[in-house]
Amino acid sequence: MSEHLVVAKFGGTSVADAAQFRKIKEIVADNPQRRFIVVSAPGKRYPEDRKVTDLLLDAYVKAAAGESFQEELTRIKARFQEILTGLEIHFPIDDEIEHLAYSLRTDPQRDYTASRGEYLTAKIMAKYLGFTFVDPAWCVCFDENGQLDMAMTSRTMRASLLPLQRAVIAGFYGADMIGVIHTFERGGSDITGSLAACAVGADLYENWTDVSGLYAADPRIVENPATVSYMSYRELRTLSYMGASVLHSDAVLSASEMEIPINIRNTNRPDDAGTMIMRHLPHGVSKNPVTGVSGRKGMSVIQIEKVMVSDGSGFSALMLDILKERSLPFEYCLTGIDSITLVIRSDLLESCKDDLFEEIRRTLNPDFIGLRDNLSLIAVTGEKATESSDANVRVLQKLTEHGIEISTINQGAGKLNLLIGVPQERYEDAIRTIYEFRQSMA
Ligand code: ASP
After folding, report:
1. Which of 425, 21, 11, 437 is nearest to 247 (CA)?
2. How far apart are the first and last CA of the chain?
3. Are 268 and 24 spatial neighbours (Cβ–Cβ below 8 Å)?
4. What is the mean pLDDT of the chain?
5. I need a surface site. Which of 141, 242, 330, 403 has the fewest CB within 10 A?
6. What's the CA gap between 343 and 357, in Å, rounded?
7. Residue 215 carries which DSSP code?
8. What does the pLDDT read at residue 441?
9. Which of 159-173, 241-255, 379-393, 402-416 has the lowest mean pLDDT?
């Protein structure tokens, strides 16, 4: 058998306490191909709990304001102490916390402080598993502007990791040429995992969390939604963009470029297969035409009418220029014979609405311009949904049968994605209706 190489990233809830560390040890022992382990900082153990990263950021804010940060450091130390006591590990946590306190007193740095959760977790995990600790300050490279240097990171990570038999890497941060620590956005340990997987040319990137994969619909709206067994990178990006959050989108991007499959797994239920995200479905696997449904509330539709918009006079291009000048992003734009429909997030539109309309009137001299607020946009995702166009038609039919007004529809020529605008007050109904339809196709 050819040797497979797996990078396994464990999120905040998976390292929240000693019991979770033990589960990771079993998972890692279960498969020697899991050579490189990436960890987040301890997350919440129960809903009212605080994440270690949040405590660290609070400590930084207080330190920067010249206030006492003792309370936060005491809580952070207690979190790590509980893990160390539970696992019976000797680790100089007092010294580490004292070092952090010193840096906060003398020269408080936001990113350095925020990164200490992952740093300490990875050091403790490495000791617990008997693996080598890898500090990403050595191999996740940022440039002088604080931007990730992809090429350099890839080379340096590869050179640092591949000679090691097994290693634990701290997620979420890296450093620039002069050693200043930079963090990714919140949730960025996923990115570290993906960078490591790409750098070592992993066969699989496992992302261990506290759910058994991606849900086909938002569990706050649909009771016990099904998890999706397989989906493509594009489907995942659409669902994430529209509100489903499990993986950081930048992490998906780099893994998809290298075609490394991502497997979302549950640390608390390691026997569940989870969701497999890859470019193409394996042969013989049949798939529901609707992979998932997600959406966003708070959308506005601008309708601009002018006879023969599409006659080549550049009307649409001018319209898009107006939006671009204002850096106003739009969700989608549909051009008809005599009209343009734009869907824009209401919160972004709010502050510039009057101005924008004034400019559209002045520059484009439309016959009519109208605005409708309080809409939600729903994405029905399924790479096959438009191939068997029947599924899309039936989704719309179901909504109509349930008396849900369909305000806009966008179905591109690509295979993916039906975007439907529905009144905000029917958002939850619409999601449930589409989910029920999905299940009826299973
Ligand atoms: N610890 C960081 C956060 O809470 C990064 C991560 O967990 O991925 O955002």
Report:
1. 11
2. 35
3. no
4. 92
5. 403
6. 14
7. B
8. 86
9. 379-393
Name the residue of 9, 10, 53 to mutate for ligand 1: max ligand atoms within 8 A of Cβ: 53
- Position 230: which residue type? Y
pTM of the model: 0.88
State in Å: Cα 268 to ligand 1 middle: 19
Of the candidates 35, 41, 53, 34, the residue with the CA atom closest to the CA atom of residue 17: 41
Looking at mean pLDDT, say which of 127-131, 252-256, 324-328, 342-346 comes out highest: 127-131
CB neighbour burial string for 175-212, b if at least 16 within 10 angstroms, e if fewer: bbeeeebbbbeebbbbbbbbbbbbbbebebbbbbbbbb
Residue 23 has pLDDT above 50, yes or no: yes
User: Does ligand 1 have an atom closer than 6 angstroms to the CB of 193?
Assistant: no
Distance between CA atoms of residues 223 and 125, nearest Å: 36
| Rounded average pLDDT over 1-23 | 92
What local confidence, expressed as pLDDT, does residue 386 receive?
A: 47
Q: Sign (positive/negative) of CA torsion 93, 99, 101, 104? A: negative
Q: How many residues does the chain have?
A: 442
Q: Give the position, in ligand 1's atom list, of the atom nearest the Cα of 185.
A: 9
pLDDT of residue 30: 97
Residue 9 dihedral angles phi and psi, to the nearest 5°: -105, 130
CA distance 109 to 178: 15
Residue 1: per-residue pLDDT? 41
Residues 6 or more apart whose Cβ sits within 8 Å of residue 217: 225, 292, 293, 294, 431, 432, 434, 435, 438
Q: Is the CB of 186 under 6 A from ligand 1?
A: yes
What is the rounded CA–CA span in Å between residue 386 and residue 81? Answer: 54
> Ligand 1 center to residue 57 CA distance, Å?
11
